[in-house]
Amino acid sequence: MSKEQILSSDGIPLEQSLKKAERKNKLKAVLLVAPLFLFILIIYVFPIGDMLFRSVDDRMITKMLPKTFIAIENWDGQDLPDEPVYKGLYEDLKFLKENKTYGKIIARLNYEKSGFSSLIKKTVRKISKFDEGNYKEQFIEVHKRWGQSEYLIALKNAAPNWSYAKYLKGVDMKFDQDRNIVLVEEDRRIYKILWMRTLNVAFWVTIFCFILAYPISHLLATLPMKYSNLLMICVLLPFWTSLLVRTSSWMVLLQQQGPINDLIVWLGLAADDSRPELMYNVIGTFVAMTQILLPFMVLPLYSVMKTISPSLMRAGKSLGGTPLVSFLKIYFPLTIPGIGAGCLLVFILAIGYYITPALVGGASGSLISNTIAYHMKSSLDWAFASALGTMLLVGVLAIYWVYNKLVGIDNIKLG
Amino acid sequence: MALPNHTPLNYRIWHYMYLTFCGLVFFFLIAPLFVILPLSFNAEQYIHFSAKMLALDPEGFSLRWYEDMIYGTKNPWGLATKNSLIIAFFATIGSTILGTVAALGLSSRHMPYKAAFMALLISPMIVPLIISGTAIFFFMAKVGLAATHTGIVLSHIILGTPFVVITVTATLSGFDHSVTRAAASLGSNPVNTFMKITLPLIMPGVISGALFAFVTSFDEVVVVLFLAGLENTTIPIQMWVGLREQLSPTIMAVATCLIVMSTLILVSAELLRRRSERLRGINR
User: Fold this and answer.
1) DSSP helix/strand/coil, A369
2) What burial class does residue A368 get, using C-beta atoms within 10 Å of its C-beta: 0-12 exposed, 13-18 middle, 19+ buried?
3) Do A233 and B221 touch (CB under 8 A)?
């Protein structure tokens, strides 16, 4: 190897000079991406992280009863705790009563063990009459539950700052008194049904979309341009139209006095006074979501089919294959990338659908998103909404990862 | 698609069944939109086809619901339209600028970890809106931007950028970089080169991305549901509220206006796409 280095015009070794230029170009590219990256990091990624944090954050009760929890840490959970625990509890509850903020801990403790609601309410009512010293006896006098160790164990169980109890709730499980993970009672297992229904709807909507989209994508890809452009409008117009407009048109069509029901009655499939319920159940969700998500299946299929040369099928036929055989052996395998892209995209979109199920789904057609919205807006159990959201997010990101591996994110086709 | 004369009968049957099936699917796609149009001209208060409408009697039709939409005293559509347009306008500008600049960086072959950055920047399009809405709501409440136009615009910029990034990187994929080098060799500085050479060439992609961003913001309801106060109501929010109560003919009138708007947007997007293909064709 020669020792002599090649120099660039300004006397720097060429290799170094090239590296410098490369670094400069790299920096330029990174600086261009940086503004959007930082923007998304601050207003999107950070908030989603915050949501994860909320779903496991259980510090409210430790913040509100600080002295109690310092004292209860030393208690072994066997016999009743000693005076310091009750003294801490007295001071904390008294403080909460003066600030009128004890309402929050009632809900949280009652979730840990039912019976806490009346216990805390009664105690708080009488707490101003407590004498100094000997708090243990006074507490037990106010309510005998203060003398039962299971309530104090429940209180101690509420102490950790972090808890995945909300995630357990999301899969129909809970902690029992001894901190074992158990399934909730049979009649309360609602979330498993909800998850299964969401997966079920997303799965079947994907299948329906595929069955409907494959032939028309083929037609669009094989017709001469001037016809296919016209038919493409049928796919693109719904794609560009407001989701609420499309959902409201389904509400018009599926309502009891609507055109589809009129048709069913006219065909004699049902009597006029017993028109079938097509909306506010899972049928409505299926039909409306299939139509709304269909363009997302057609576009990737079309863009793949467009690249398949028609001479391949002719070659298959000329070699003696029947149309069916040529289709199965030649055409279909070539469209698999498009099928993968379309199915994954539709599945991802369907699994998190909110607006359409909320409007046409009713109770039996509502999906996991609707439950998250309910806990965000009505029950105000934000931690649980965050936990459900996180579980859904993990599922979606897993599919997104597969999509990225199989299809490549930069191959998404729009319009 | 006419079949050759010698086609056997069973293939003919298959072929026509296939065409019929396709026809039905196209009908399924497009027909629901057209149900709304006549109902918005209904003279009666109900959302179904009256006997007079079916008989094409002029008395069955009227413009009263459009009047109600525009002049109705208790109707919020005026405020909602104003808000929707303001929010969509600023969100479009923000998404387009941020997205285009980022797409320029992502298309550079010197960009490190390109796939990872791309996956992150596209993710707002993939993550369910309910999750984005929840997360953004917590954030905006924390920084005091809940129930403000600013908060909604910022979140719509997030939701709109993936579309701009996708369309602009697609346009840039066929971009011939020798033209910018030629400009540089002729003494143009990078900013000048971008404004005079690159931008005009990628303009169709930028505009179609901007159209996507506009439509995304204009239609978006989930995030706004979380963020909006009474003052920030938008057209989708009003439709959502109306649809939850009952189907009213006024909503059909609004929906008709939105369909007309989306048709216009579709036509311009199509024209842009063709122009872009032509421009890139010249480059090749």
Assistant:
1) helix
2) buried
3) no
Report the SS3 class of residue A378: coil
Test mutation, B6, B46, B108, B131, chain A, max A CBs within 10 A:
B131
Residue A202 reports pLDDT greater than 90: yes
By Cβ distance, the residue of A36, A47, A295 closest to B161 is A36
- Within 10 angstroms of residue A193's Cβ, the number of other Cβ atoms is 10
Q: What is the pLDDT of residues A326-384, one digit of tens each?
A: 888 888 988 988 898 899 989 999 999 999 998 888 888 888 999 999 998 888 888 89
Give yes or no: residues A215 and A290 share one domain. yes
- CA atoms of A246 and A239, how far apart (whole Å): 10
Task: Note whether residue A69 is domain-resident.
Answer: yes
Chain B, residues 184-213, CB within 8 A of chain A, namely 208, 212
Amino acid (1-letter code) at residue A172: D
The total of structural domains in chain A comes to 2
Q: With residue A175 as reference, give the H or E element that holds it.
A: strand A173-175
- B 79-98: CB under 8 A from A: 98
Q: What CATH number is given to the structural domain containing A404?
A: 1.10.3720.10
Nearest to A241 among B33, B108, B118 (CB): B33
Q: A144 exposed, middle or buried (CB, 10 Å; 0-12, 13-18, 19+)?
A: exposed
pLDDT confidence of residue B284: 37
Rounded to whole angstroms, the Cα distance separating B129 from B126 reads 8
Look at residue A169 and tell me if it is in a domain: no
Q: Is A135 in the same domain as A279?
A: no
Give B 6-65 residues with CB within 8 A of chain A: 11, 14, 18-19, 21-22, 25-26, 28-30, 32-33, 35-36, 39, 46-49
The partner residue sitting opposite B163, judged by closest CB among A48, A249, A414, is: A414
Same domain, A157 and A219: no
Helix (H, G, I), strand (E, B) or coil at A69: helix
| Distance, CA of B127 to CA of B116 (rounded, Å) | 16
The tens digit of pLDDT for each residue in B160-172 reads: 999 999 989 888 8
A99 domain residue, yes or no: yes
Residue A329, in any domain of the structure: yes
Give me the domain span that covers residue A349.
Answer: 191-411
> CB-based contacts of A303: which residues, under 8 Å, 6+ apart?
A338, A413
Crossing angle for the helix pair A332-351 and A282-305, to the nearest 10 degrees: 140
Number of H helices, E strands in chain A: 21, 2
Overall fold of domain B75-283:
MetI-like fold (1.10.3720)
Tell if the CB–CB gap between A40 and B124 is shorter than 8 Å. yes
Asked if A235 and A93 sit in the same domain, the reply is no
Residue B60 parent element (H or E): none
Look at residues A139, A161, A183 and tell me which one is the last residue of a structural domain.
A161
**Residue contacts between A and B (CB atoms, under 8 Å):** 269
Kindly state the average pLDDT of the residues B191-215: 89
Q: How far apart are CA A157 and CA A108, in angstroms?
A: 11
Q: What does the pLDDT look like over A48-67, one tens digit per residue? A: 999 998 888 877 777 788 88
The domain segmentation of chain B, as residue ranges, is: 75-283
Cross-chain Cβ contact B21/A31 below 8 Å: no
Same-domain status, A226 and A371: yes
Give the mean model confidence (pLDDT) for residues A89-114: 80
Asked if the Cβ–Cβ distance from B36 to A36 is below 8 Å, we say: no
Q: What type of residue is A78?
A: Q
Helices then strands, counting H and E runs in chain B, come out as 13, 0
